[in-house]
Amino acid sequence: MTTPSPRPRLLLVGGGGGLVGRSIVEEFAPDWAIRSVHRHTTPNEALPGIETVRADVATVRDWAPLLEGVDVVLNVAWYRTGPERVFRPLADGLGRLIRSSEARGIRRWIQISVPDAPASLEARLPYLLEKRRIDRTLTDSALSYAIVRPTMLFGPNDKLLTVMLRTIARYHRFPMFGNGEYHVSPLAARDLARVVRREAAGDARHTISIGGPRRWRYRDLTDRMFAALGRRPRYVRFSPRGSVRLARLLESLGSSLLYAYEVEWLLSDRLGLPPYEGLDPPLAPAEAFLDREAARLSSRARARGQHI
Asked: Does domain 10-150 have CATH number 3.40.50.720?
């Protein structure tokens, strides 16, 4: 008599459609079953073992059916900006998910959160106020949890390094906010996915703040971007106050390129977090990504008969 194969572990992902969600699905898909709850179609849906639930995490009233058979819950759902009326329903929906997970005895819960921000932002920004509310709901629960707080992330078509490179390639110069002496430690989205997988196998109730393998002085990172494109660094310099004003102006014009709170956070020098230890292979350096993306930009420009 043939022994039935063991049931694959089941991961429920809330908000699996973005850069982080896609990376996590790719990391877990080879040997986990995945139930992904998100609003929009993604290429990962074609992978074997992916069950897509087309829904908004904010509007799911009863999570119990979606938690059937689930071993680990992972939340990556969040918005980049918006007023309280945007974030509160999402936080309420995640609160319902946490309470339902607790009632069903889910083995492990992973929350993707954000690093410490300046006190002024922590006290007034809905993005942070509601995020911290969800973090507290999780820590106050009886669940086994890991709250993972990565610094700025990079990956194909990200909203950070890729956009910065494209800006330099197009305009041959780049804004410098303040003196550039603050620090960042970019982390690959694929490496964050590996961190999540490792944390999903653990049982420690903890909060961890993590960065990539190198702590950069910001202006050294932007210099490296110019070098990847074969150009000398050229900056349009702004004072810290002028930097925030510029971002607010862009917001008022409907741009999603940069938000004022992101500039304040960057200038506060809180984003140069230490690396996550213990992964094999080690964390991917940003330099290799920059070189690949710069080569891709150059190739596209040559195909159009342009120079960058």
From this structure: yes
- In terms of phi and psi (left: phi > 0; alpha: psi -120 to 50; beta: otherwise), the region of 12 is beta
Domain with CATH 3.90.25 in the chain: 154-186+214-272+281-301
pLDDT tens digits, one per residue of 138-150: 999 999 999 999 9
The pLDDT confidence band at residue 43, using thresholds 50, 70 and 90, is low
**CATH 3.40.50.720, the chain: domain bounds:** 10-150
Whether domain 154-186+214-272+281-301 has CATH 3.90.25: the reply is yes
* pTM of structure: 0.93
CA angle 238, 242, 247 (to 5 degrees): 100
